[in-house]
Amino acid sequence: MRILITGSSGGMGIACAKRFLENGHEVFGLDIMPSRINNKNYHHCIVDISNKDKLPEIDGVNIIFNNAGLQNSEDDITNNLKGTIYVTEKYGIQNDIKSILFNASASAQSGFEFPEYVASKAGIVGYMKNVATRIAKFGATANSISLGGVKTDLNKVVMEDKKDWEDIMAVTPLKKWMSIEEVADWVYFLTVTNKSMSGEDLLIDNGEYKLNSSFVWPGYNN
Description:
222 residues, alpha/beta, globular
């Protein structure tokens, strides 16, 4: 199948791109950074998804993983929400689509974290449900994943701070964060294996929100 992944140059995006490639799919990546993937079935475009007029022409997309996002920036809503809408409307609402998955956040459910980031991710969940109703006629699914802590470079600010990490683990029942490889497992299952669940937002956070209620980050007070 033909896969489109935004934010494909690092972290979760590159892990997911590699997982699809390992399983014989053709992958198109959109990112503001160059790619580190060397594979004949991978095609990369350096582009800012918030600029809808610059999005490349890619026909026959079967699966979209809307992964690109910013955190605690001045452009959270423009990039995270508007950019995601631009990508989905351009590539996803068509006959060849099989599945669209959105990377939301546990913050979309809990409300914890910085205001524009929370608003952008909660908006993604609402938009996902709208998309699910519109692509059902193609026999396609749309869902979102609301992840808690994931071991990425973006999160090193708390992972490498001993006190912050101890505070996070104190409110995380399973006493761990997800690896990017585990994220890739979920993404592959929800887009390729899943054929029947649609319009759902899955909270995957090692029990942190439903079994506790706290958010730990420098400069943030509950």
